[in-house]
Amino acid sequence: MTIAGVEEHNTILSVGDTTYLDYRGIKEKKEGYGPTGNGGNGLILHSSMAIEPEKGQTIGLLWQKLWNRDHKPKPPKDETPEAKKERQKLARKAARQRAFVDKESYKWVEAINELETKVEVSTRVVHIFDREGDITEVFDKVRQCKHTGVVVRAAHDRSLNADSERLWAKMESLPINFEQEIEIPATAKRPARQAKLAVRFSPVQLRVPLRFDCRDPLNVYAVYATEIDCPDGETPFAGDAFNHRSRRFNRNGCDYSSMVYLSLAYRRIS
Length: 270
Prior knowledge:
Layout: E1 11-22, E2 34-37, E3 40-51, E4 58-67, H1 81-97, H2 106-118, E5 124-129, H3 136-142, E6 148-153, H4 167-172, E7 178-184, E8 193-206, E9 218-228, E10 247-249, E11 255-263
Parallel strand pairs: 1-5, 5-6
Antiparallel strand pairs: 1-3, 2-3, 3-4, 6-11, 7-8, 8-9, 9-11, 10-11
Helix pairs in contact: 2-3
Protein backbone atom coordinates (compact mmCIF):
# COMPACT_ATOMS: atom_id res chain seq x y z
CA MET A 1 0.00 0.00 0.00
CA THR A 2 1.07 3.64 -0.51
CA ILE A 3 0.00 5.37 2.71
CA ALA A 4 3.46 6.90 3.27
CA GLY A 5 3.67 8.05 -0.35
CA VAL A 6 0.67 10.37 -0.11
CA GLU A 7 1.86 12.39 2.86
CA GLU A 8 3.82 14.81 0.66
CA HIS A 9 0.50 15.98 -0.85
CA ASN A 10 -1.88 18.47 0.76
CA THR A 11 -4.87 16.76 -0.86
CA ILE A 12 -5.33 13.42 -2.58
CA LEU A 13 -8.29 11.73 -4.22
CA SER A 14 -9.18 8.22 -3.09
CA VAL A 15 -11.20 6.57 -5.86
CA GLY A 16 -13.22 3.62 -4.57
CA ASP A 17 -14.59 0.83 -6.72
CA THR A 18 -15.44 -2.88 -6.53
CA THR A 19 -14.09 -5.67 -8.76
CA TYR A 20 -15.77 -9.07 -9.14
CA LEU A 21 -13.29 -11.93 -9.65
CA ASP A 22 -15.16 -14.66 -11.51
CA TYR A 23 -13.64 -18.16 -11.42
CA ARG A 24 -16.68 -20.10 -12.63
CA GLY A 25 -14.74 -21.60 -15.53
CA ILE A 26 -11.95 -23.01 -13.34
CA LYS A 27 -12.92 -26.33 -11.78
CA GLU A 28 -10.43 -26.18 -8.92
CA LYS A 29 -11.84 -22.78 -7.94
CA LYS A 30 -15.38 -24.06 -7.45
CA GLU A 31 -15.05 -24.63 -3.70
CA GLY A 32 -14.47 -21.93 -1.11
CA TYR A 33 -15.80 -19.08 -3.23
CA GLY A 34 -19.18 -17.48 -3.59
CA PRO A 35 -21.65 -15.94 -6.06
CA THR A 36 -20.59 -12.74 -7.80
CA GLY A 37 -23.74 -12.09 -9.83
CA ASN A 38 -24.82 -13.19 -13.33
CA GLY A 39 -24.01 -16.78 -12.50
CA GLY A 40 -20.44 -16.05 -11.50
CA ASN A 41 -18.50 -17.76 -8.73
CA GLY A 42 -15.49 -16.18 -7.07
CA LEU A 43 -14.35 -13.30 -4.89
CA ILE A 44 -15.17 -9.62 -4.42
CA LEU A 45 -12.39 -7.02 -4.15
CA HIS A 46 -12.97 -3.43 -3.08
CA SER A 47 -10.09 -0.99 -3.66
CA SER A 48 -9.20 2.61 -2.84
CA MET A 49 -6.80 4.10 -5.39
CA ALA A 50 -4.84 7.28 -4.63
CA ILE A 51 -4.88 9.93 -7.39
CA GLU A 52 -3.02 13.24 -7.44
CA PRO A 53 -5.83 15.77 -8.11
CA GLU A 54 -4.04 18.41 -10.18
CA LYS A 55 -2.59 16.21 -12.94
CA GLY A 56 -4.60 13.03 -12.39
CA GLN A 57 -1.48 11.00 -11.75
CA THR A 58 -2.00 7.60 -10.12
CA ILE A 59 -0.05 7.28 -6.87
CA GLY A 60 -1.01 3.72 -5.90
CA LEU A 61 -3.30 1.61 -3.76
CA LEU A 62 -4.33 2.93 -0.37
CA TRP A 63 -6.57 0.12 0.88
CA GLN A 64 -8.20 -3.11 -0.25
CA LYS A 65 -10.73 -5.57 1.11
CA LEU A 66 -11.31 -9.09 -0.23
CA TRP A 67 -14.23 -11.34 0.65
CA ASN A 68 -16.66 -13.91 -0.71
CA ARG A 69 -20.41 -14.22 -0.43
CA ASP A 70 -22.09 -17.28 1.02
CA HIS A 71 -24.06 -19.50 -1.32
CA LYS A 72 -27.77 -19.40 -0.60
CA PRO A 73 -29.36 -22.77 0.22
CA LYS A 74 -31.29 -24.24 -2.68
CA PRO A 75 -35.09 -24.08 -2.27
CA PRO A 76 -37.06 -27.33 -2.06
CA LYS A 77 -37.87 -28.82 -5.45
CA ASP A 78 -41.56 -29.03 -4.56
CA GLU A 79 -41.77 -25.44 -3.27
CA THR A 80 -45.10 -23.82 -4.06
CA PRO A 81 -45.42 -20.21 -5.30
CA GLU A 82 -46.91 -19.23 -1.92
CA ALA A 83 -44.02 -20.84 -0.04
CA LYS A 84 -41.51 -19.13 -2.32
CA LYS A 85 -43.11 -15.73 -1.70
CA GLU A 86 -43.02 -16.30 2.06
CA ARG A 87 -39.39 -17.45 1.95
CA GLN A 88 -38.36 -14.35 0.00
CA LYS A 89 -40.31 -12.13 2.37
CA LEU A 90 -38.48 -13.57 5.39
CA ALA A 91 -35.13 -13.21 3.59
CA ARG A 92 -35.78 -9.51 2.90
CA LYS A 93 -36.78 -8.96 6.54
CA ALA A 94 -33.62 -10.66 7.78
CA ALA A 95 -31.50 -8.53 5.42
CA ARG A 96 -33.07 -5.33 6.75
CA GLN A 97 -32.36 -6.36 10.32
CA ARG A 98 -28.66 -7.08 9.74
CA ALA A 99 -26.25 -4.69 11.42
CA PHE A 100 -24.74 -2.18 9.00
CA VAL A 101 -21.20 -3.39 9.72
CA ASP A 102 -22.26 -6.84 8.46
CA LYS A 103 -23.53 -5.54 5.12
CA GLU A 104 -21.47 -5.26 1.93
CA SER A 105 -22.24 -1.54 1.76
CA TYR A 106 -20.13 -1.08 4.89
CA LYS A 107 -17.09 -1.22 2.57
CA TRP A 108 -17.57 2.47 1.75
CA VAL A 109 -17.52 3.55 5.39
CA GLU A 110 -14.74 1.07 6.18
CA ALA A 111 -12.50 2.71 3.57
CA ILE A 112 -13.20 6.12 5.13
CA ASN A 113 -12.40 4.78 8.62
CA GLU A 114 -9.15 3.17 7.52
CA LEU A 115 -7.74 6.19 5.71
CA GLU A 116 -8.89 8.71 8.33
CA THR A 117 -6.75 6.88 10.89
CA LYS A 118 -3.79 5.83 8.70
CA VAL A 119 -3.16 8.95 6.59
CA GLU A 120 -1.52 11.85 8.39
CA VAL A 121 -3.88 14.67 9.32
CA SER A 122 -1.81 17.09 7.21
CA THR A 123 -3.12 15.33 4.05
CA ARG A 124 -6.77 15.76 3.15
CA VAL A 125 -8.31 12.62 1.65
CA VAL A 126 -11.29 13.19 -0.67
CA HIS A 127 -13.08 9.94 -1.49
CA ILE A 128 -14.71 9.57 -4.91
CA PHE A 129 -17.64 7.14 -4.94
CA ASP A 130 -20.09 6.12 -7.65
CA ARG A 131 -23.86 5.67 -7.14
CA GLU A 132 -23.44 2.64 -4.89
CA GLY A 133 -21.72 4.87 -2.33
CA ASP A 134 -24.71 7.21 -2.06
CA ILE A 135 -25.77 6.03 1.40
CA THR A 136 -26.49 8.19 4.42
CA GLU A 137 -23.88 6.34 6.49
CA VAL A 138 -21.13 7.71 4.24
CA PHE A 139 -22.08 11.36 4.79
CA ASP A 140 -22.74 10.80 8.47
CA LYS A 141 -19.26 9.33 8.87
CA VAL A 142 -17.49 12.05 6.90
CA ARG A 143 -18.97 14.84 9.00
CA GLN A 144 -17.32 13.23 12.02
CA CYS A 145 -13.87 13.14 10.38
CA LYS A 146 -11.07 15.68 10.68
CA HIS A 147 -9.34 15.48 7.30
CA THR A 148 -11.71 13.48 5.09
CA GLY A 149 -14.13 14.59 2.38
CA VAL A 150 -16.29 12.79 -0.15
CA VAL A 151 -17.77 13.34 -3.60
CA VAL A 152 -20.57 10.90 -4.43
CA ARG A 153 -22.56 10.52 -7.61
CA ALA A 154 -26.15 10.79 -6.43
CA ALA A 155 -28.42 7.78 -6.83
CA HIS A 156 -31.45 8.83 -4.76
CA ASP A 157 -33.93 11.68 -5.09
CA ARG A 158 -33.47 12.60 -1.45
CA SER A 159 -35.80 14.59 0.76
CA LEU A 160 -34.36 17.98 1.70
CA ASN A 161 -36.72 19.43 4.29
CA ALA A 162 -39.91 18.98 6.28
CA ASP A 163 -41.96 20.08 3.25
CA SER A 164 -40.57 17.08 1.32
CA GLU A 165 -38.73 19.16 -1.27
CA ARG A 166 -36.72 16.74 -3.39
CA LEU A 167 -33.15 16.90 -4.64
CA TRP A 168 -33.84 16.54 -8.37
CA ALA A 169 -36.53 19.24 -8.42
CA LYS A 170 -34.37 21.57 -6.32
CA MET A 171 -31.41 21.31 -8.68
CA GLU A 172 -33.50 21.60 -11.85
CA SER A 173 -35.05 24.81 -10.54
CA LEU A 174 -31.71 26.56 -10.11
CA PRO A 175 -30.20 28.95 -12.66
CA ILE A 176 -27.18 27.71 -14.63
CA ASN A 177 -23.93 28.74 -12.92
CA PHE A 178 -21.66 28.08 -15.89
CA GLU A 179 -21.23 25.99 -19.03
CA GLN A 180 -18.31 23.65 -19.58
CA GLU A 181 -17.15 21.75 -22.65
CA ILE A 182 -15.69 18.29 -22.11
CA GLU A 183 -14.16 15.70 -24.41
CA ILE A 184 -16.07 12.43 -24.70
CA PRO A 185 -13.54 9.73 -25.64
CA ALA A 186 -14.18 7.35 -28.51
CA THR A 187 -15.49 3.85 -27.91
CA ALA A 188 -16.07 0.86 -30.18
CA LYS A 189 -19.57 2.18 -30.86
CA ARG A 190 -19.06 5.94 -31.09
CA PRO A 191 -16.41 8.44 -32.20
CA ALA A 192 -14.90 11.03 -29.89
CA ARG A 193 -16.77 14.33 -29.68
CA GLN A 194 -17.18 17.47 -27.62
CA ALA A 195 -20.10 17.83 -25.22
CA LYS A 196 -21.36 21.00 -23.60
CA LEU A 197 -22.54 20.73 -20.01
CA ALA A 198 -24.74 23.20 -18.15
CA VAL A 199 -23.65 23.12 -14.52
CA ARG A 200 -25.69 24.12 -11.49
CA PHE A 201 -24.60 23.86 -7.87
CA SER A 202 -25.98 24.76 -4.47
CA PRO A 203 -25.64 23.93 -0.78
CA VAL A 204 -28.44 21.60 0.33
CA GLN A 205 -29.45 19.91 3.56
CA LEU A 206 -30.27 16.21 3.33
CA ARG A 207 -32.78 14.80 5.79
CA VAL A 208 -31.45 11.99 7.96
CA PRO A 209 -33.44 8.73 8.35
CA LEU A 210 -34.98 7.83 11.70
CA ARG A 211 -32.53 4.98 12.28
CA PHE A 212 -29.71 7.45 13.08
CA ASP A 213 -29.03 8.72 16.58
CA CYS A 214 -27.98 12.12 15.22
CA ARG A 215 -30.88 13.57 13.23
CA ASP A 216 -29.15 16.84 12.34
CA PRO A 217 -29.42 17.52 8.60
CA LEU A 218 -26.45 16.59 6.41
CA ASN A 219 -24.98 19.79 4.98
CA VAL A 220 -23.57 19.07 1.53
CA TYR A 221 -23.07 20.72 -1.84
CA ALA A 222 -24.98 19.34 -4.81
CA VAL A 223 -23.58 19.72 -8.33
CA TYR A 224 -25.98 19.12 -11.21
CA ALA A 225 -24.63 18.75 -14.77
CA THR A 226 -26.73 18.31 -17.92
CA GLU A 227 -25.69 17.98 -21.53
CA ILE A 228 -27.16 20.71 -23.75
CA ASP A 229 -27.09 21.49 -27.46
CA CYS A 230 -26.40 17.91 -28.41
CA PRO A 231 -25.57 17.74 -32.17
CA ASP A 232 -28.27 16.38 -34.49
CA GLY A 233 -27.97 12.67 -35.00
CA GLU A 234 -25.94 12.16 -31.82
CA THR A 235 -27.18 10.41 -28.71
CA PRO A 236 -26.84 12.65 -25.64
CA PHE A 237 -23.92 11.41 -23.59
CA ALA A 238 -25.12 8.61 -21.34
CA GLY A 239 -22.01 6.50 -20.98
CA ASP A 240 -19.99 5.66 -17.90
CA ALA A 241 -20.57 9.09 -16.38
CA PHE A 242 -24.36 8.90 -16.73
CA ASN A 243 -27.08 6.34 -16.08
CA HIS A 244 -30.68 5.53 -16.85
CA ARG A 245 -31.92 6.97 -13.56
CA SER A 246 -30.66 10.39 -14.60
CA ARG A 247 -32.38 10.64 -17.97
CA ARG A 248 -34.58 13.74 -18.26
CA PHE A 249 -36.66 15.55 -20.87
CA ASN A 250 -36.70 19.31 -21.27
CA ARG A 251 -39.81 21.36 -21.91
CA ASN A 252 -39.52 20.90 -25.68
CA GLY A 253 -39.45 17.13 -25.32
CA CYS A 254 -35.78 16.87 -26.30
CA ASP A 255 -33.92 14.13 -24.51
CA TYR A 256 -30.77 14.99 -22.61
CA SER A 257 -28.77 13.37 -19.85
CA SER A 258 -27.80 14.57 -16.43
CA MET A 259 -25.88 13.69 -13.33
CA VAL A 260 -25.89 14.92 -9.75
CA TYR A 261 -22.95 14.81 -7.38
CA LEU A 262 -23.14 15.35 -3.64
CA SER A 263 -20.04 16.79 -2.04
CA LEU A 264 -18.98 17.08 1.57
CA ALA A 265 -15.40 17.57 0.51
CA TYR A 266 -14.04 21.08 0.80
CA ARG A 267 -16.44 23.36 2.57
CA ARG A 268 -19.09 22.93 5.19
CA ILE A 269 -22.17 25.07 5.65
CA SER A 270 -22.03 26.96 8.94
